[in-house]
Every structure is written in structure tokens, then in C-alpha cells.
């Protein structure tokens, strides 16, 4: 067992053991992410070249739903399962999570669902990394570090942002608190996994922020206003996704029928509204948001298509759709706030993600890695505002509240448990007020 005694008292042993473990994890996860990204490129090109495939989206959804019902019940929780295992270690994450989410996401993109890719990379990273738990007989503390390193490697390699990936693996686990004991394996895994992906020939999209305005009271105030709008968009995205998912589970008992119904809705909307720009990753539209004005409703279109796709059970991630929502919302706000399109598109790109994932630090670092250090102050302000305005909600329901944002809630409570606590608290408050009135 990698013991706490050695991990705490022998620095050299700690560094060497995690150098070896994190490197192996990074090579495996970086290679898996590269294969995944190449597969997504193929799926996207095939769908664009054969538009009729969108008509088969309901049947693709049914197939993915059946696959998870038959083989993937233990891993259906996806990213939330990873967070639960970090907080309450119980069972090793089944390796089947990786191929199932890989296949499910590629199929979703091939036939036109509006989903992302981060969730897939993170799940592959964590499930691969957790193979070391029984292999090295890791204790719970070491296992948490392994899982976080796998998450960092997956995030970094799929987006090409190693610093953001390293911090994301620690920051996403709990709102307002990071496990700094994992900083070395997370950073090492993120950097190496990114390099492994590049060695395999992965090319990440370049987003050009051509003009960053000088600091002024107006610019700072406008960024704060925009950050609030990004936080509201993040909250709407997370709440709507959970709402649709809850409705589907309540009224459609047979799981494969949920993405079948969602697939019908998405496919019909694409054909009737000529809404191809709102399906898949949407990277061409994100790039356009940095270059010229777009339709002011583009952010809402992508939000609706993604909420229906993810809420009904299609597999993939939320982050790239959040990038789309943020970039196009920033594009729409730019003329209203008298700021450059590329500047607000870039801030929206990272800030909506910060609000929805409750990761303002990772999102700020992502902005610096993608757009340069000069945007750092503005990005930090937009991400922090979005994080605060989004409230106690998020795309990861297993996140714990480790530090209060504003309203007082129980420390350590999971986001999924908050609605029940709030209802109970409201009832108790109502009874207290009634008792005061009676007396």
C-alpha cells in the first residue's frame, strides 16, 4: 500500500511515486483522448457530408440508451459517479465506463445530438486512472489523488489547456475548496497528457482575441455586467438540463425511450428550422463569434438543443456547448456594452463554463492559455461574477458545498440535496412565523 506515512514524511518518495503513476496515467489518457478526438472529427465530417443521418438520431439515441441499460447501469451517473467516489470512496470505477461513454458520444455526434466532449474525456481519464487502485493497493487518500489526476489528464488533453486541466481536476470536486495534496500529480498528468495528444497529431482550435481594451472604469463595469449575464446563462443551462432529465425519468420509465424521444425533437427541429448550427460541437460558430456579429439568439438556440439532448440521455459533455453559449452570448452583448466582439466572446467562452461548473480559477487559467495573459484580469472578473451569480447550481450535481457563495447552506451538502433542504428549511421557517403570529 502507498502509505500515508511515506506520502507525508518522505518528500522524495512522494515525488518519485507520483511521478511514475501520473506519467503512466497521462500517457494512457492522452492516447485515449487523441483517439476520441480523431473519432469525433470523423463523426462530424460524416454527418455534415450525409445530412440524412440526422433523421436516424432517435434510433441512435435508443441504441445508446439500450447499451447503457444493458451494460452500463453502474456507470450511468458519469461525472457525478467520479465526484461521489472522491468524496465517499466505495467501489473502483468500472473500466467499462471508458468504452461506453466513448461509443455513446461518438454515436451522438455522428447522428446530430448537441453534446460536448469534456464529459467523455474526464470519464475515460478517471476510469483508466482508477485501475491503479487495486493494482497498487491504494488507500482512500491516494485513490482520490489518482482520480483527480485522471480527470486533469482528460480535461487537459481534450482542450489543450494543461494549467486549466490541472486546476480543474482539483477545483471541480467541491465548491470553494481544492485538495492541494493532489497538485503535483494533477499538474504532471495534465501537462504530459496534453503533450501526448500533440505527439499523436491532435490539433486544437485557435480562437483569436485580436483586441483587448485598456483598463478603465467603463470597461471593468461592463465586464462585471457581462459576467452577471454569463452567470444567469450558466444557471439556466444547468437548471434546465436537470429539469428535463427529471421530467424524462419521471414520465418515461424505459430508459432507451428517453433519448429516442429527445432525438425526435432535435431531428425535427433541425429539419424544420434549418438549425444545423445548433447541433454537434458547434466549433465553426464559436470561431465566428470571435470574428463578426452573429444572430443574437444563437446562444439560446444552442442552449435549448443541448438541454434537450443531454436531458433526454444522449452521452457527451456539457463544456463545449457551454463555450458556444458563452461565446455567442458575449457576441450579442458586445454592441450593447460597446466592447469588441472577440473580447466579450472570449470572456463568455470561459465565464459561462465557470458559472456552470463552479470552477472560476480553472476557467480564468483557460482564458490565459487560450487568449494570452493580458486578458487575465478581465477573465478573472467575468468568471468570478458568473460563479457567484449562478448560485448553488451546476452541471455536476455531486459537487459538495465546501465554501459558501452568499446564502447560508449546510457545509458539505451536495448540490443534488439542496432543493430538498431548501424546501424543508422553508417549511420550518413558515411554521416558526405561524407560531410567532399565534403568540
Can you walk through the features of this model?
This protein has helices at residues 4-9, 11-49, 57-71, 79-87, 97-111, 118-129, 132-136, 140-159, 162-171, 183-199, 217-251, 257-273, 283-289, 298-312, 319-337, 341-357, 360-371, 376-389, 418-438, and strands at 174-175, 400-401. With 439 residues, it is mainly α. The protein has 3 domains: 6-198, Clc chloride channel (Orthogonal Bundle), CATH 1.10.3080.10; 215-388, Orthogonal Bundle (Clc chloride channel); 407-436, no CATH class. A two-stranded parallel ribbon has the order 1-2. Helix 8 (140-159) runs antiparallel to helix 9 (162-171). It starts with a helix and ends with a helix. The model has no long low-confidence stretch (mean pLDDT 93). InterPro entries: Cl-channel_core, ClC, ClC-type_chloride_channel. GO terms for molecular function: chloride transmembrane transporter activity. Keywords: Ion channel, Ion transport, Membrane, Transmembrane, Transmembrane helix, Transport. One of its GO terms (cellular component) is membrane.
Amino acid at each position: 500500500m502507498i502509505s500515508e506515512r511515506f506520502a507525508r514524511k518522505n518528500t522524495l518518495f512522494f515525488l518519485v511515486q507520483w511521478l511514475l503513476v501520473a506519467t503512466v496515467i497521462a500517457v494512457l489518457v492522452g492516447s485515449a483522448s487523441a483517439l476520441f478526438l480523431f473519432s469525433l472529427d470523423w463523426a462530424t465530417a460524416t454527418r455534415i457530408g450525409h445530412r440524412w443521418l440526422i433523421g436516424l438520431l432517435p434510433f441512435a439515441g435508443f441504441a445508446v440508451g439500450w447499451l447503457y441499460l444493458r451494460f452500463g447501469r453502474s456507470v450511468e451517473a458519469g461525472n457525478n459517479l467520479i465526484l461521489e467516489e472522491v468524496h465517499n470512496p466505495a467501489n473502483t470505477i468500472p473500466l467499462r465506463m471508458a468504452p461506453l461513454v466513448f461509443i455513446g458520444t461518438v454515436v451522438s455526434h455522428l447522428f446530430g445530438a448537441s453534446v460536448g466532449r469534456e464529459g467523455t474525456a474526464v470519464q475515460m481519464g478517471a476510469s483508466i486512472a482508477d485501475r491503479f487502485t487495486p493494482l497498487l493497493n491504494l488507500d482512500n487518500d491516494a485513490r482520490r489523488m489518482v482520480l483527480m489526476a485522471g480527470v486533469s489528464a482528460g480535461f487537459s488533453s481534450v482542450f489543450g489547456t494543461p494549467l486549466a486541466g490541472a486546476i480543474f481536476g482539483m477545483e471541480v470536486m467541491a465548491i470553494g475548496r481544492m485538495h492541494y495534496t493532489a497538485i503535483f500529480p494533477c499538474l504532471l498528468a495534465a501537462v504530459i497528457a496534453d503533450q501526448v495528444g500533440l505527439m499523436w497529431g491532435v490539433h486544437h482550435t485557435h480562437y483569436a482575441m485580436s483586441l483587448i481594451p485598456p483598463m478603465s472604469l467603463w470597461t471593468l463595469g461592463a465586464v462585471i455586467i457581462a459576467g452577471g449575464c454569463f452567470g444567469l446563462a450558466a444557471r439556466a443551462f444547468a437548471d434546465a438540463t436537470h429539469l428535463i432529465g427529471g421530467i424524462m425519468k419521471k414520465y418515461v420509465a424505459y430508459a432507451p425511450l428517453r433519448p429516442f424521444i429527445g432525438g425526435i425533437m432535435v431531428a425535427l427541429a433541425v429539419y424544420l428550422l434549418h438549425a444545423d448550427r445548433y447541433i454537434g460541437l458547434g466549433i465553426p460558430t464559436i470561431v465566428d463569434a470571435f470574428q463578426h456579429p452573429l444572430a443574437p439568439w444563437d446562444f439560446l438556440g444552442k442552449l435549448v438543443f443541448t438541454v434537450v439532448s443531454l436531458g433526454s440521455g444522449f452521452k457527451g459533455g456539457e463544456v463545449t456547448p457551454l463555450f458556444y453559449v458563452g461565446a455567442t452570448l458575449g457576441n450579442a452583448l458586445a454592441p450593447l456594452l460597446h466592447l469588441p466582439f472577440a473580447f466579450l466572446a472570449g470572456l463568455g467562452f470561459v465565464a459561462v463554463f465557470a458559472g456552470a461548473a463552479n470552477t472560476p480559477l480553472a476557467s480564468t487559467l483557460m482564458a490565459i492559455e487560450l487568449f494570452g495573459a493580458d486578458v487575465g484580469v478581465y477573465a478573472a472578473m467575468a468568471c468570478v461574477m458568473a460563479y457567484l451569480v449562478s448560485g448553488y447550481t451546476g452541471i455536476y450535481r455531486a459537487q459538495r458545498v465546501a465554501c459558501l457563495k452568499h446564502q447560508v447552506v449546510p457545509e458539505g451538502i451536495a448540490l443534488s440535496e439542496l432543493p430538498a433542504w431548501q424546501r424543508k428549511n422553508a417549511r420550518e421557517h413558515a411554521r416558526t412565523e405561524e407560531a410567532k403570529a399565534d403568540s
